[in-house]
């Protein structure tokens, strides 16, 4: 789709920039949701201390990567 440029020469972002932006937005959202769910589930089953930190970290990375990938694909489409 062609878009008319303004007289101030503002350019459209490239496809790579859109995919990168989608991944970063999805990764941060996934990490936040992963932190909430993992803290709740770890505390519910009684994990404390280093186990809690390790479990939360692992879940945050997994959910952030998964949601970031889907958001990057969605921004590409």
Automatic annotation (TrEMBL):
Signal peptide range: none
Compartment(s): Membrane
Main location: membrane
Pfam families per record: Romo1
Keyword Transmembrane part of the UniProt annotation: yes
Any one GO BP annotation for this protein: protein import into mitochondrial matrix
SMART domains hit by this protein: Romo1
GO cellular component terms listed in the entry, alphabetical order: TIM23 mitochondrial import inner membrane translocase complex
TM regions (residue ranges): 24-47
UniProt keyword list: Membrane, Transmembrane, Transmembrane helix
InterPro entries linked to this entry: Romo1/Mgr2
Family from the record: Belongs to the MGR2 family.
General function of this protein: Has antibacterial activity against a variety of bacteria including S.aureus, P.aeruginosa and M.tuberculosis. Acts by inducing bacterial membrane breakage.
Protein name, UniProt field: Reactive oxygen species modulator 1
Species whose genome carries this gene: Eschrichtius robustus (California gray whale)
């Amino acid at each position: 789709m062609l878009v008319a440029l303004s007289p101030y020469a503002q350019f459209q972002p490239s496809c790579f920039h859109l995919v990168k932006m989608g991944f970063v937005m999805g990764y941060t959202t996934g990490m936040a949701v992963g932190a909430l769910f993992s803290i709740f589930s770890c505390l519910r089953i009684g994990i404390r201390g280093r186990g809690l930190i390790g479990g939360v970290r692992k879940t945050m990375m997994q959910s952030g990567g998964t949601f970031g990938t889907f958001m990057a694909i969605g921004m590409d489409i």
